[in-house]
Amino acid sequence: MSAPIVGDDENILLPAARAGDAEAFRRLWAPLERRAFGLCLHLTDNRADALDALQETQIAVWRNLDRFEGRAPFAAWVMVIARNSARSVVRRVRAAREDLLFPEAAEPEAVESGFDETVAGLVDLRRALATLPETHKEALLLWAGGLTYEQTAAALQVPLNTVRIWIFRARKALRETLGRP
User: Fold this and answer.
1) Do the beta carbons of residue 49 and residue 92 sit within 8 Å?
2) pLDDT per residue over 103-140, tens digit each?
3) Residues whose CB is less than 8 angstroms from the CB of residue 14 and which lie 6 or more positions away in sequence, other chains included
4) Which residue has the higher pLDDT, 128 or 60?
5) Are 53 and 92 in contact (CB under 8 A)?
6) pLDDT digits 0-9 by tens, 150-175
7) What is the three-class DSSP state of 145?
8) CB 82, CB 53: distance < 8 Å
9) What's the chain's Rg over C-alpha atoms?
10) Burial of 42 (0-12, 13-18, 19+ CB in 10 A)
11) What is the rounded distance in angstroms from the CA atom of residue 181 to the CA atom of residue 169?
């Protein structure tokens, strides 16, 4: 696993990646890939769709490096692209399912594993996240993915206090749903 990018490294790697240096891009992308995948997975609720969204994210980041203006951290810019890619995949999947004669047969239900508490906890968390309003869920996932409140507000294009309220309500709802204080 690559070491996280520090400010100076990003200042060196970004121009190199913009010039077509694939290794520089790999070093920029590597520390963010897991966070981007986590966001995509939670927004799509499906591993295969999340992988599609992650691939779209990586391609979009590579193709649009020249558009990164540095007004926010590089990681925040990548997370916004991941969010948009995940939402795009979800729209495509929903549209494809609407075209099916029997949409319920398109994707089998996930099998829960009773032997592993960790898996059960993740299943519970995913179910709890699914009960949240979409705006609250996105705000929470962006914030939990490492964005500040300000960056989350900018990504969602809503006022800062709105984001704070959405995240507060999402966390409260998750605690209640999961039975935690």
Assistant:
1) no
2) 554 554 444 434 345 555 566 777 878 888 989 988 98
3) 24, 28, 65, 68, 74
4) 60
5) no
6) 989 988 889 999 999 999 998 888 88
7) coil
8) yes
9) 18
10) buried
11) 14
**Model confidence band, residue 31 (pLDDT cutoffs 50, 70, 90):** very high
* DSSP state letters, 9-77: HHHHHHHHHHTT-HHHHHHHHHHHHHHHHHHHHHHHSSHHHHHHHHHHHHHHHHHTGGG--SSS-HHHH
CA dist., res. 50 & res. 28, Å (int): 20
Q: Which two tokens stand for residue 80?
A: 């916004």
* pTM of this structure: 0.64
Of the two residues 140 and 60, the one the predictor is more confident about is 60
Per the CB < 8 A criterion, the answer to whether 110 and 143 are in contact is no
In contact, 85 and 54? CB cutoff 8 Å? yes
Report CA-CA distances (Å) from 111 to 10, 103, 164.
42, 19, 35
Cα 153 from Cα 150, distance rounded (Å): 5
Which residues lie below 8 Å from residue 94, measured CB to CB, with a gap of 6+? Answer: none
Question: What is the spatial distance between Cα 20 and Cα 18, in angstroms, rounded to a whole number?
Answer: 5
- pLDDT of residue 85 exceeding 60, the answer is yes
User: What's the token pair of residue 147?
Assistant: 């964005």
DSSP-based three-state secondary structure for 157: coil
Q: Please identify which residue in the block is written with the tokens 């507060």.
A: 168
